[in-house]
Amino acid sequence: MESPKRPSICRSFPVAAPTNTISTKFMAATALGSVAASSASSTTRFLSTATRATLPFSSRSSSLSSFKFLRSAPLISHLFLNQGRPSSCVSIRRFNAASHPKCLASDPEQLKSAREDIKELLKTTFCHPILVRLGWHDAGTYNKNIEEWPQRGGANGSLRFDVELGHGANAGLVNALKLIEPIKKKYSNVTYADLFQLASATAIEEAGGPKIPMKYGRVDVVGPEQCPEEGRLPDAGPPSPAAHLREVFYRMGLNDREIVALSGAHTLGRSRPERSGWGKPETKYTKDGPGAPGGQSWTVQWLKFNNSYFKDIKERRDEELLVLPTDAALFEDPSFKVYAEKYVEDQEAFFKDYAEAHAKLSNLGAKFDPPEGIVIDDASSKPAGEKFDAAKYSYGKRELSDSMKQKIRAEYESFGGSPDKPLPTNYFLNIILVIAVLAILTSLLGN
């Protein structure tokens, strides 16, 4: 874990004033946003193994139960935190597999209901950044060079176990789990792996971001022995930011375009210097919250997902906004710069590339049941059929006669179509084909 004085690419997460060496190391930034607790969260501590052994879970987690808001500080691809540092295991037994019935495949209807509950949670807690980070950290351990599941890591729900939750990069994610655990209990036929990714994608969408083309049906690992080893997530302060980002994300199978697009998630959240070593204690954009006030954001509207991150990083005109070394690298590295410049000018292109990269990240290493996955988006979100417009089918410069328009309209409505109710495209084409054939036959017979 990085000390506050060392450059960090990750977001801060609220922890109490350190009482020992291990807790001090946990004050480095964590990726993609940190949960904001109310005043009660200041008592949250990462206890030593010896201390935790003498305390029941209720004593260790009671300080987390009264928080009302979340201090957000999302991260991007720097999502994760430095490995190779001593870790403190934050026990949270309620998240172990034994607390819920074994569930290999998620129920589609429960997934839909869980999504609605997540939306309500976001409205009251402003926890968008920490939920994005939760999904990214579970998926980000993937290693494309390992074929076996679950050894390859990735989106498999392993982050709920103490052994992985205690990794340095995951400091503070216990609070994210605590936020969504009531939803998991309510919908027991939704796997943790799916719930983490559902929460992450929903947070992006509810913050004004693009619709993520998600699929579900991820299988959970069943025990802590299936968790990946510590050390797969990005370092907090690499000497060469661009090279380090490539090393980590290439291992996941992501390319330069996807790295830059995912970096755009920095548009959400803020950083706190007392925890990450980065940012100001307060700016004019963060002094009034929402949630607990303070910290320094990357963008002015730090709970709104758009392309302002790229614009602000490029201009660097506002000293109230934060720029990390890994942010600056997007405009300094020649390959990264091509995409960063594109996203400055074209938010639509950014949204498209981000949605694809986020969906790809969320599937890394996952095993699906059924193998093709589950899609829960309503039919209303799919492209609508073509609406009736008879004039569109005129030929050459000759306009269709009113009688012909009426005839086509009558045929159209006989199949259930109307101007306000699009008819499936294949039906409408069939109507046109039938009329065309009849016209040809009539012409031939007349001749």
Automatic annotation (TrEMBL):
<keyword id="KW-0106">Calcium</keyword>
<dbReference type="GO" id="GO:0020037">
    <property type="term" value="F:heme binding"/>
</dbReference>
<dbReference type="Pfam" id="PF00141">
    <property type="entry name" value="peroxidase"/>
</dbReference>
<keyword id="KW-0150">Chloroplast</keyword>
<keyword id="KW-0934">Plastid</keyword>
<dbReference type="InterPro" id="IPR002016">
    <property type="entry name" value="Haem_peroxidase"/>
</dbReference>
<dbReference type="GO" id="GO:0000302">
    <property type="term" value="P:response to reactive oxygen species"/>
</dbReference>
<keyword id="KW-0560">Oxidoreductase</keyword>
<feature type="transmembrane region" description="Helical">
    <location>
        <begin position="427"/>
        <end position="446"/>
    </location>
</feature>
<keyword id="KW-0349">Heme</keyword>
<keyword id="KW-0479">Metal-binding</keyword>
<dbReference type="GO" id="GO:0046872">
    <property type="term" value="F:metal ion binding"/>
</dbReference>
<keyword id="KW-0809">Transit peptide</keyword>
<feature type="domain" description="Plant heme peroxidase family profile">
    <location>
        <begin position="131"/>
        <end position="386"/>
    </location>
</feature>
<dbReference type="InterPro" id="IPR002207">
    <property type="entry name" value="Peroxidase_I"/>
</dbReference>
<dbReference type="GO" id="GO:0042744">
    <property type="term" value="P:hydrogen peroxide catabolic process"/>
</dbReference>
<keyword id="KW-1133">Transmembrane helix</keyword>
<keyword id="KW-0630">Potassium</keyword>
<keyword id="KW-0376">Hydrogen peroxide</keyword>
<dbReference type="InterPro" id="IPR044831">
    <property type="entry name" value="Ccp1-like"/>
</dbReference>
<dbReference type="InterPro" id="IPR010255">
    <property type="entry name" value="Haem_peroxidase_sf"/>
</dbReference>
<comment type="similarity">
    <text>Belongs to the peroxidase family. Ascorbate peroxidase subfamily.</text>
</comment>
<dbReference type="GO" id="GO:0016688">
    <property type="term" value="F:L-ascorbate peroxidase activity"/>
</dbReference>
<dbReference type="GO" id="GO:0009507">
    <property type="term" value="C:chloroplast"/>
</dbReference>
<keyword id="KW-0575">Peroxidase</keyword>
<keyword id="KW-0408">Iron</keyword>
<dbReference type="InterPro" id="IPR019793">
    <property type="entry name" value="Peroxidases_heam-ligand_BS"/>
</dbReference>
<feature type="compositionally biased region" description="Basic and acidic residues">
    <location>
        <begin position="271"/>
        <end position="287"/>
    </location>
</feature>
<comment type="function">
    <text>Plays a key role in hydrogen peroxide removal.</text>
</comment>
<keyword id="KW-0812">Transmembrane</keyword>
<dbReference type="GO" id="GO:0034599">
    <property type="term" value="P:cellular response to oxidative stress"/>
</dbReference>
<keyword id="KW-0472">Membrane</keyword>
<protein>
    <recommendedName>
        <fullName>L-ascorbate peroxidase</fullName>
        <ecNumber>1.11.1.11</ecNumber>
    </recommendedName>
</protein>
<feature type="region of interest" description="Disordered">
    <location>
        <begin position="269"/>
        <end position="293"/>
    </location>
</feature>
